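Researcher: I'd like a structural prediction for the single chain below. Treat it as a standalone chain; there are no partners to consider.
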Amino acid sequence: MTPQLRPPITPPHMVSPLLVAGVAILLLGLLREPARQKLSAILLAGAGAAYFAGGLGPWEFVFCAGLSAVAYFGLSDYRWIGLGWLLHGGWDAVHHLYGNPIIPMLPLSSFGCAICDVGLAAWYFAGAPSPYPWVRAAKPAN
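Model: Treating it as a single chain, here is the predicted structure.
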Protein backbone atom coordinates (compact mmCIF):
# COMPACT_ATOMS: atom_id res chain seq x y z
CA MET A 1 0.00 0.00 0.00
CA THR A 2 1.19 3.47 -0.85
CA PRO A 3 0.56 6.30 1.62
CA GLN A 4 -1.91 8.92 0.38
CA LEU A 5 -1.02 12.59 0.20
CA ARG A 6 -2.88 14.65 2.80
CA PRO A 7 -2.87 18.34 3.73
CA PRO A 8 -0.92 19.43 6.82
CA ILE A 9 -2.53 18.76 10.21
CA THR A 10 -3.24 21.90 12.24
CA PRO A 11 -4.26 22.32 15.91
CA PRO A 12 -7.97 22.70 15.00
CA HIS A 13 -7.75 19.34 13.22
CA MET A 14 -6.66 17.82 16.54
CA VAL A 15 -9.03 19.66 18.92
CA SER A 16 -12.32 19.67 17.00
CA PRO A 17 -12.66 15.84 17.01
CA LEU A 18 -12.46 15.89 20.80
CA LEU A 19 -15.29 18.43 20.83
CA VAL A 20 -17.33 16.05 18.67
CA ALA A 21 -16.61 13.23 21.14
CA GLY A 22 -17.69 15.56 23.97
CA VAL A 23 -20.99 16.31 22.26
CA ALA A 24 -21.59 12.59 21.69
CA ILE A 25 -20.89 11.91 25.37
CA LEU A 26 -23.27 14.69 26.43
CA LEU A 27 -26.02 13.27 24.22
CA LEU A 28 -25.47 9.63 25.18
CA GLY A 29 -25.26 10.65 28.84
CA LEU A 30 -28.92 11.69 28.69
CA LEU A 31 -29.93 8.04 28.35
CA ARG A 32 -30.50 5.87 31.39
CA GLU A 33 -28.92 2.48 31.73
CA PRO A 34 -29.25 -0.03 30.14
CA ALA A 35 -30.43 2.00 27.13
CA ARG A 36 -27.11 3.90 27.01
CA GLN A 37 -25.10 0.69 26.80
CA LYS A 38 -27.39 -0.91 24.23
CA LEU A 39 -27.41 2.14 21.96
CA SER A 40 -23.64 2.47 22.33
CA ALA A 41 -23.16 -1.12 21.16
CA ILE A 42 -25.48 -0.53 18.19
CA LEU A 43 -23.60 2.64 17.22
CA LEU A 44 -20.28 0.78 17.43
CA ALA A 45 -21.55 -2.03 15.20
CA GLY A 46 -22.77 0.54 12.68
CA ALA A 47 -19.42 2.32 12.73
CA GLY A 48 -17.82 -0.87 11.44
CA ALA A 49 -19.64 -0.40 8.15
CA ALA A 50 -18.51 3.21 7.69
CA TYR A 51 -15.74 2.27 5.28
CA PHE A 52 -17.38 -0.28 2.98
CA ALA A 53 -16.19 1.78 0.00
CA GLY A 54 -12.99 2.81 1.77
CA GLY A 55 -10.55 1.39 -0.73
CA LEU A 56 -9.25 -1.62 1.20
CA GLY A 57 -11.40 -4.20 -0.57
CA PRO A 58 -12.46 -7.33 1.30
CA TRP A 59 -10.65 -6.19 4.44
CA GLU A 60 -13.49 -3.71 4.94
CA PHE A 61 -15.92 -6.62 5.39
CA VAL A 62 -13.56 -8.51 7.69
CA PHE A 63 -13.21 -5.43 9.88
CA CYS A 64 -16.98 -4.88 9.95
CA ALA A 65 -17.61 -8.47 11.03
CA GLY A 66 -14.97 -8.25 13.75
CA LEU A 67 -16.26 -4.96 15.08
CA SER A 68 -19.80 -6.33 15.11
CA ALA A 69 -18.61 -9.19 17.33
CA VAL A 70 -16.90 -6.75 19.68
CA ALA A 71 -20.11 -4.67 19.79
CA TYR A 72 -22.09 -7.77 20.71
CA PHE A 73 -19.84 -8.33 23.73
CA GLY A 74 -20.28 -4.64 24.49
CA LEU A 75 -23.94 -5.29 25.25
CA SER A 76 -22.79 -6.65 28.61
CA ASP A 77 -19.51 -4.81 29.29
CA TYR A 78 -18.50 -1.24 28.42
CA ARG A 79 -14.85 -2.26 28.13
CA TRP A 80 -15.68 -4.08 24.90
CA ILE A 81 -17.23 -0.91 23.52
CA GLY A 82 -14.09 1.00 24.52
CA LEU A 83 -11.96 -1.62 22.77
CA GLY A 84 -14.19 -1.36 19.70
CA TRP A 85 -13.69 2.39 19.47
CA LEU A 86 -9.93 1.93 19.77
CA LEU A 87 -10.07 -0.64 16.95
CA HIS A 88 -12.13 1.75 14.85
CA GLY A 89 -9.63 4.51 15.58
CA GLY A 90 -6.85 2.25 14.30
CA TRP A 91 -8.90 1.51 11.17
CA ASP A 92 -9.34 5.28 10.75
CA ALA A 93 -5.56 5.69 10.90
CA VAL A 94 -5.09 3.02 8.22
CA HIS A 95 -7.59 4.83 6.01
CA HIS A 96 -5.93 8.18 6.69
CA LEU A 97 -2.62 6.77 5.47
CA TYR A 98 -3.61 4.24 2.80
CA GLY A 99 -7.31 4.29 2.03
CA ASN A 100 -10.07 6.74 1.29
CA PRO A 101 -11.15 9.26 3.94
CA ILE A 102 -14.46 8.58 5.67
CA ILE A 103 -15.85 11.82 4.20
CA PRO A 104 -14.50 12.04 0.63
CA MET A 105 -14.48 15.86 0.39
CA LEU A 106 -12.58 16.19 3.70
CA PRO A 107 -9.15 14.58 3.28
CA LEU A 108 -8.39 14.69 7.03
CA SER A 109 -11.76 13.28 8.13
CA SER A 110 -10.34 9.84 8.95
CA PHE A 111 -7.60 11.46 11.01
CA GLY A 112 -10.22 13.42 12.95
CA CYS A 113 -12.38 10.34 13.36
CA ALA A 114 -9.42 8.49 14.89
CA ILE A 115 -8.99 11.21 17.51
CA CYS A 116 -12.73 11.30 18.24
CA ASP A 117 -12.75 7.52 18.65
CA VAL A 118 -9.96 7.63 21.25
CA GLY A 119 -11.96 10.20 23.24
CA LEU A 120 -15.03 7.97 23.11
CA ALA A 121 -12.98 4.91 24.07
CA ALA A 122 -11.66 6.67 27.18
CA TRP A 123 -15.22 7.43 28.30
CA TYR A 124 -16.34 3.84 27.73
CA PHE A 125 -13.32 2.44 29.59
CA ALA A 126 -14.39 4.67 32.51
CA GLY A 127 -17.79 2.93 32.47
CA ALA A 128 -19.60 5.59 30.41
CA PRO A 129 -20.79 7.63 33.38
CA SER A 130 -23.50 10.18 32.72
CA PRO A 131 -22.27 13.77 33.05
CA TYR A 132 -25.72 14.61 34.45
CA PRO A 133 -26.36 13.86 38.13
CA TRP A 134 -30.11 13.45 37.58
CA VAL A 135 -29.72 10.62 35.05
CA ARG A 136 -29.79 7.36 36.94
CA ALA A 137 -30.17 3.77 35.89
CA ALA A 138 -33.71 2.75 35.06
CA LYS A 139 -35.44 0.82 37.83
CA PRO A 140 -35.75 -2.86 36.98
CA ALA A 141 -39.26 -4.10 36.21
CA ASN A 142 -40.69 -6.36 38.89
